[in-house]
Amino acid sequence: MKSSRPLLVGITGGIGAGKSIVSRVFEVLGIPKYDADTRAKALMNTNQQLITQITELFGQEAYQEGMLNRQHIAAQAFENKDLLRQLNELVHPVVGKDFKRWAEQQESPYILKEAALLFESGSYQSLDKIITVTAPEQIRMERVMSRDGRSEEQVQSIINNQMDEAEKVKKSDYVITNDGQQLVIPQVLQIHSELS
């Protein structure tokens, strides 16, 4: 008989939508969270195979003093969709295996996988449910510009490389609106009660 595993729940949203804040509310409720974007950054600095492949793709400047040169990578990848696609094709399978190992060690009715590119990477297909956090684009732009000190053009470029929010909403089981008007916690509690 197959042992019961936790429900695998993805949480995503465009840049600045507030998926990390929403994830933290779930964590306060005791739900384990795997942060795919943070793990991807860590794996790009520690996984020897990835380091070799990224260096082949972006040249020797890809790493400085043994650490990923994120500015060099971002400058090239966001201007060249083909390079960005190739980078994602290297990183996503490694993150997928890492998540699987992590998920097998969790004991909870459900667990969260937080990822900006859940749909774009195709990793949503291995999950049971999807939560998308949404906010109007103007609010998202302002949040990211004040949080990261990026220009409007830089933020717009990132948004343009992400799947359209309406498309994400259509593919999701749950939607949390984080527009500064609606309270987030009651929305999280409603989903939590359905998944627990």
CATH superfamily membership of the largest domain: P-loop containing nucleotide triphosphate hydrolases
Please work out how many helical segments DSSP would assign.
Answer: 9
Mean pLDDT: 94
Care to count the β-strands?
7
Rg over CA atoms: 17 Å
Strand order of the largest sheet: 2-5-1-6-7
CATH topology of the largest domain: Rossmann fold
Could you characterize what this model shows?
- The protein is of the alpha/beta class.
- It folds into two domains: 1-32 and 110-196, Rossmann fold; 37-105, Rossmann fold.
- Helix content is 53%, strand content 14%.
- It has nine helices and seven strands; from the N terminus they run βαβααββααββαααβα.
- The strands form two sheets. The protein has a five-stranded parallel beta sheet with strand order 2-5-1-6-7, sandwiched between helices.
- The model has no long low-confidence stretch (mean pLDDT 94).
List the helices and strands and how they pair.
Elements: E1 7-12, H1 19-28, E2 33-35, H2 36-46, H3 48-58, E3 63-64, E4 67-68, H4 70-77, H5 81-104, E5 110-114, E6 129-134, H6 137-148, H7 152-161, H8 165-170, E7 174-177, H9 184-195
Parallel strand pairs: 1-5, 1-6, 2-5, 6-7
Antiparallel strand pairs: 3-4
Helix pairs in contact: 2-3, 2-5, 3-5
